[in-house]
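Marked as duplicate of an earlier ticket. Keeping the data here for the record.
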Amino acid sequence: MPPKSSRAFLVDENTSRTLASTLRTEGYSAEHVYEAGLRGHSDLDVFAYAQAHGQTIISGDLNFANIVQYSPPHFGIIILRLPNKTPTADLIRSAERA
């Protein structure tokens, strides 16, 4: 299946690993921080990795909303503010709309 978008995603560790695998199944390029070997790393490390790999970060971490710390230009940051028990399908729809 050809990719739906040239956009690549890095899913942060506070967001379900299932989101990354489901995005891949849906035809997107997506990687979870665990897969990238970034488990437990700082937000700055995650940001640097995403920038080096041309990835948009998907996170529930409000620290990434700090425009002073993570000012453009960058490949994008999507902050998901949804209840913890939100089904993965709803997370994916929210990410696609973003």
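See parent ticket for discussion. The longest helix spans residues 43-52.
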